[in-house]
Amino acid sequence: MALTFMVPGLDEATSEKAIGILQSRLSQEQETALVLKHVHWNLTGPNFIAVHEMIDPQVDVVLAQADETAERIATLGGSPDGRADAITRVRTWSKFLLEGRAGTEEYLKALDAYYSEFIKADRTAIAELDELDVISSNIVQDHVQELEKFQWFMRSHLV
């Protein structure tokens, strides 16, 4: 990929590696917003309204994270890919498989597992970005803090 410009203090190879890591995070952030809306629309049963209303603010959080990640890619001179096929092209994480109408507990358990994988991937990205670009690493660290908080909310419903 040809970078449009360089951030002072980073060389092209380092920037390209950071952009690749960030593109993966961007794609999972975008997918997560879609997964959350799917859950929001399809969950049923006890605690429906509490969980239904808990999910929408998290959609906003992960969309804001995606925006921040995309803007960091652009800042590094790359071109963020926000198209739907980018999600499937760069996916290294498991698909969210729960379909259709299901109970709140079933959906929260599936989301908990999805978030565990998401957070683990973000933590791996942090470790890799620490060696490449501490600014990008700090962005992902902030994202993990929000993801972990929401996972705590979900787990609290399951206790």
TrEMBL record:
PROSITE patterns cross-referenced by the UniProt entry: DPS_1
Cross-referenced Pfam families: Ferritin
TM region(s), chain numbering: none
Entry-linked InterPro entries: DPS_DNA-bd (IPR002177), DPS_DNA-bd_CS (IPR023188), Ferritin-like (IPR012347), Ferritin-like_SF (IPR009078), Ferritin_DPS_dom (IPR008331)
Domain of life (superkingdom): Bacteria
Family according to the record: Belongs to the Dps family.
PANTHER family: DNA PROTECTION DURING STARVATION PROTEIN, GENERAL STRESS PROTEIN 20U
Protein's name according to its UniProt entry: Ferritin-like protein
Organism of provenance: Bifidobacterium panos
Lineage: Bacteria, Bacillati, Actinomycetota, Actinomycetes, Bifidobacteriales
